[in-house]
Amino acid sequence: MRIGEILSAKPDHGVVTISPEAGVRELIALLAEHNIGALIVSTDGTRIEGIVSERDVVRHLHSDGTVINNVVAAIMTEGVETCAPDDDLDTVMATMTARRFRHVPVLDGDRLVGIISIGDVVKHKIGQLEFERDQLDSYLHQS
Ligand code: AMP
User: Fold this and answer.
1) How far is 52 from 28, CA to CA, in rounded Å?
2) Which of 52, 82, 106, 137 could form a disulfide with 76 if both were Cys (CB 3.0 to 4.6 A apart)?
3) What distance in angstroms lies between residue 129's CA and the mean position of ligand 1's atoms?
4) What are the boundaries of each domain within the chain?
């Protein structure tokens, strides 16, 4: 299964971005408003400068309670691991597991076209297992 197929199956595959100069309070508000776990950090909405997840907020709050007054650039991760629509889902899943993150932005050339989360991966895997179980079930009951 290709990443592009997973993206097409998502009801809304728009990517929510935030400027590195935005405040951490605004970041938290956007995560809550969109019910998501991470935002792409980008000044112009297309070029990726970083990624920031709820985990970054929690980790920084632990070491510095005043981080809430800081800007996103202070807590984001630079050097973002990305994937392409043609990439294989299992490869991206292996990267998520090995690098211990739950979000991978999807780039078509230079263009940011979506984000794959561990939730999307699990949803797809469950669908695949259900399909295989139904196939085996009908095979058994036909014979
Ligand atoms: P997550 O599990 O996605 O909430 O992220 C865990 C940590 O990895 C946080 O510090 C994120 O900023 C970072 N992170 C998340 N996704 C990526 C990615 N695709 N590339 C690099 N770092 C990431």
Assistant:
1) 10
2) 52
3) 27
4) 3-117
What is the CATH topology of the domain spanning 3-117?
CBS-domain (3.10.580)
Is the minimum distance from the CB of 80 to ligand 1 under 6 angstroms? yes
Question: For 35-80, what is each residue's pLDDT tens digit?
Answer: 999 999 999 988 999 999 999 999 999 999 999 999 999 999 999 9
* Ligand 1 centroid from CA 52, angstroms: 7
pTM of the model: 0.90
